[in-house]
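In this section we walk through a basic example: taking a raw amino acid sequence and producing a predicted 3D structure, encoded as discrete structure tokens. The instruction is simple. Fold the sequence below.
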Amino acid sequence: MTGDETPPRTQAFSRWTTLHWLRAGVAASLAVLALLGATGAWVLGRTASLSDDLLDVKSQALSTSLHLESALLDQETGIRGYGLTGNAEFLKPYHQGITEQTADTARLAHLLRADTGALADLRTVRDAVETWQTRIARPIAASPSGSPSPLATERAAEGKTAFDHLRTALDQQQGRLRAEQATSRRDLTATMRLRNWIFTAIALVIVALAGLAFEALRRGITRPLDQLGTDARTISGGDFTRPITATGPADLRRLSGEIDSMRQRLVRELEVSEEARRLLDAKTADLERSNAELEQFAYVASHDLQEPLRKVSSFTQLLQRRYAGQLDDKADQYIAFAVDGANRMQVLINDLLDFSRVGRVHHTHQSVDLDAVMEHTLSALSIGIEEAGAVITHDELPTLVADPTQMGMLWQNLIGNAVKFRRPGQAPHIHVTAAQQDTLWQFTVTDDGIGIAPEYAEKVFVIFQRLHTRDVYSGSGIGLAMCKKIVEFHGGTISVDSEYSGGTRITFTLACAPPPGSDDLSTTPQVPLPEHVEPTS
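The resulting token sequence is shown next.
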């Protein structure tokens, strides 16, 4: 083999993909972990077995033996008291003791069924109990009540000897059970110590396997991917001439080659995409210019309608004053229609001008105290508020960075609507709340008026959309549309709370600071017009 030749085994490894390496590593790790797991399972099983034997057999047997001794003592006390007094009450603990004795001996026989020595002790106890009961307890218990039993005196010494023999049998049984309990506890402690050592070894092996896996992943996957990522970031930074270096397992080298092919295609397609971007920028500029011209046209057209409309209004009002009563009723009615139509057109144009000024003329952001704006609004609406007998309350309102004129328009429209759309014959109650939510302030304007049906919750914010005729409620149908435009200009949203049924609740949010770019929305020349700020409907 020459120095330039690669060993066959190395060539075979070079064709291994990431999946091959992962399979080999996982197989080796699983084999080691399976061996460790089997050892750990054995020691856990052994620990559980010893623990169950100690808790469920040895300790339970000793506890039952002690309880049996207590039951026998109750029997002895009851028999002795009955024999000396003849009082039948002393037989109650005796009979209760017999019941407990039967249950305890049966339980001991079940617990000690696998322990020959302990069963022998239990038989000795049973025999001693039977001897004492046959010679002493049962005959005395069978004696008539009401007077001391002669047998109690006659067999007092024999009874003491029999019960002492019973105590000795119980002590022997309990001594064996205590010794077996201590032995089981020692075995459990030794097994738990062995378990701790085994699991410590398992933990160390797992840490070692994790270290080996980490190093293998670093050399075989992380380092090649880092190199690939470095090359890709260089290309994404604009250097499309940078070639991709292929390293790592076969599939990563294949991936590097595919990314390099993609880089070459990107170089070829870059010129086409740049041309498409230039065309898109040109179309976007045309669209922005068209929108600006259309908005400016609407603004100027509304302004230019003012002068001829003022002439129409002035001359129709002059005609009404000069010829009122001189013509027939139809003529007076027609003149009144003309005057009313001219006045409504004047209000509509003014409202349209206010609507078009939002974001164009009024876009000076500064610190605005909404409490002060609210007080100014209530002062401006004081006549209508007094006529309606409205009660208006509000929480402490915050200070925001906003356009002060637009804030005044917003409050005047919302408060004015709440006063206007009240229930007939009822003084309206209006309450304004404010609560901060992260970077936004949420406001509610709640009244007890006629309300807005849920199906109209979106329609009321569309310009010129009215829910009532002008004969019932005056207005142009622009007020809430203007509120929506003002709120959205300040980075918020506005809606009708459809779940509120006691009237109308308008909920809206305002940003603590103006959204980026809001000061640059007005890009076309403005026609200088007098300010007109009043509530619209």
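Looking at the output, two observations stand out. Residues 156-236 form the longest helix (81 residues). Residues 520-537 have pLDDT under 50 and may be disordered. In the next section we compare this with other chains.
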